[in-house]
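Sample entry (751 residues):
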Amino acid sequence: MSIDAYHQKYGKMLDPKEVSVTLPDGRVISFETGRIAKQARGAAVAKMGDAFVLSTVCYGEEKEGDFFPLTVEYREKAYAAGRLPGGYNKREAGRPSDEETLSARIIDRPIRPMFPENFTREVQVIVQVLSADRKFAPDVLGVSAASLSIGLSELPFEQQVAAVRVAVVDGQNIVMPTYEQMACADLDLVVAGTEDSVCMVEGGAYEVSEDTMINAILAGHEAIKLMCKAQQELVDRCAKPKMELKPQHVGEAHEKLLATVKEVVWDELNKDVHSNMVKTDFYPAMADLCAKMLEDERILAIIGKDEEQDPALVADAKAIFSDYERTAMREMILNEDVRLDGRTTTEVRPIEIELGVLPSAHGSAIFQRGETQGLVVCTLGSKADEQRYESLQGEGSKSYMLHYNFPPYCVGECKRLGMSRREIGHGHLAERSLAAVLPLPEDFPYTIRVVSEIQESNGSSSMASVCGGCLSLMDAGVPIKAPVAGVAMGLISEKGSVKEGGKIKILTDITGTEDHLGDMDFKVTGTAEGITAFQMDIKIRGITPELMREALEQARQGRLHILGKMAELGLAAPRPHVSEKAPTMIKMRIPTNKIRDVIGSGGSVIKGMQSQTGCTINIDDDGNIDIAAPSGKAAAVCRRMIEELTAEPEPGRKYKGKVKTIQPFGAFVEILPGRDGLVHISELADHRVDKVEDVVHVGDEVEVLCLGVDPKGKVKLSMKALLPPKAAPAEAPAAEAAPEAPAAPEAPAEG
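Predicted structure, serialized as tokens:
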């Protein structure tokens, strides 16, 4: 085929179609398709400034089952920032970094609910940052790019989704802030939503109010509306025809099952739901009831018996049972204000706390809330223990980290051990929850690592990590600004949409079952003064600001209750001193021209000090030194050694030194490590010295007085000045008294 014929049949190969959105501050966000990755089922680019974010989507064949296998991958290319990857192998690692994993979760959470409930095809979305702007983070553009690529494909997708980052700086809401603005922001928030509602929020803050949070969400949604409208314009112009979905669970057998399952299980199901059961009782009861239902003759008459049993109808019967279970629990909450475990909608589960449970740990705590238990441990290290990382902004390090582990035994399961995306996400939420109250590194020069080991779980394990993490920090003696607690909240609506009206109930401290059956899941952490972190996923449409305010106020009351329990059963404030098991940390500063003296040739000096004292010494380019010592005595010795290495001779100060070399005109004495001074021959003694060796020899230890330092840095010393003064010569005996002179003769009297 000739080029002309090809163009006539298929059009140009590089033929981009583009739409743009102008933000309130004048910056432009553009969406493009038709130029890159055209063999993908859908491909789109989101651009802003120098940022260029590509998203592609592909899908597989339809599969049986009730699980939607959606995978979202997010990658940042080193060349996007004009850099080469670090390390020996100069290519990007196959495994995503934690930051890339968190960005992938940000993309996944708002787009997943936009697929139909009965959709079971495997879908893979790959988002790549091909060019980065040096002023702002490109990750949130990935949500819009992913949404647009899916909207342009054959895949069913309810509504276009967009996301923005919002920062609050000096009380002002800034949409798509720069790195500099984020560094000084009181609130850093990612908001995702459709043209008519917010569907996801995540962020961290420095004890901001609930109203500040809501205003930031609303400001972000205004920009989201414009971005979704622009996406829809491009979808209307360029999208492929949408695939048709086969309806599931329809037909006469399904209708019979709907009625028969209810007839068989409803009374007993309703009784179990009202029995105030905890998870370990309720789950087995539901499994037994479902098994009993499948053995009922009325059900077997529909699904078949033995070899003639239809697996599809068995799966349908189980799904119907689950729907009735969900309906029974929701109706009880909406109509009776009673939850599965007997609590009211505002009640927090019972709390128990133990501190110092691990003898060798610097700080440890068990936080138990209902059937969720976190064993949280705090470890303090030196600057050498900081976490190094590489990003589009370059290399960096962090002195505080929180890691979250969710082993399979905490829910009674057998699974392969490994780090999941969920564990990374939960750890990040807990980490930023506590970051706002930590002391500044210059005031507390430790590297802090908190590890949350979830031992039991029935919902809100990330919030147990926050509470337990705070207690472990205080147990270790970390001087945090204020205690932090977290609570997971839920929402149940009668109609499945706020706009349609009906009853709405907000739940405090939700369990795993309530999380599954609810319409909204949001987690709020903070101190008594304000919010430090927030995460919200909304499954229904039309959440209003008034409803968010009500939910946040109920969450605040729950948070205050938990903070009270932490103070009552654990600690109200950090211990007065850092744990005696933690290393002793000292900070000091030396002149930059003295750094090489402390390090020495090939590190010989610093290695020698570390070997002698058992300390770890870290020096930065500004002369700041961190000393991590096994004891206070070792720290003091190490500090004194560094002070001696970097000290300058002080005129008038006495030193004890060693004679290094002898010259005809005097002796050179080392008074400080690596620093000699001259004792002139005339300053060796208080009498005339003909030969230096008559007074001192090489290797002698002598005491000298610093007379001064000349402009060239030469040190003048004296031994003579320290000698005791010579005794004054004895005075001559007093001369004997002279004989008294004869009295003058009296003058003759006048006659």
